Amino acid sequence: MAEAANGTATLAGLDLYRQLTILVGQASGTLEKRMLRRHGVTPLEYMALSKLADAGDDSLRMNDLAEAVGVNPSTVSRLMGRLEGGELARREICEADRRATYARITDQGQRVVREAAATFDDDFASALDAAAVDSRTAALVSLLRQG
After folding, report:
1. Domain range annotation of the chain
2. Which of 73, 138, 82, 83 minimizes the C-alpha distance to 108?
């Protein structure tokens, strides 16, 4: 974030952060409701399952999964608890290094990823379209779509 001569954040930096906060809040709320209703998973759970499905052997070290979805290890541990409860993923101890724990997607988790992909993509695109015409977030959406 840019800093003005007096040490305060510049308006541009603050405005960009405000737009990001609004955009994430709006998109998360919309996606959360629709993903839960249609597929029984939150966007974060879907993201984690997708990362596991894309992994070479359908598994990742728990710390790598946390990094891949942008959360800390304790959050990914709680996340895995919910996924295990829904029989969408399971934890496995590494045989070569008993200190390491892996997250592995189940067949049911694979099915959820396949079925939820279009819902997530369509609803996220709709959330961005709505944000593109909202004066509070339009500039950020424009920047995101350029990338």
Report:
1. 16-146
2. 83
pTM, two decimals, is: 0.84
Q: Decide: helix, strand or coil at residue 59.
A: strand
Segment 93-146, tens digit of pLDDT = 988 777 889 999 999 999 999 999 999 999 999 999 999 999 999 989 998 899
CB 41 within 8 A of CB 119: no
29-66 pLDDT, tens digit each? 889 999 999 999 999 999 999 999 999 888 999 999 99
Domain 16-146 has CATH 1.10.10.10: yes
The edge-to-edge listing of strands for the beta sheet with 59-61 is: 59-61, 101-105, 89-93
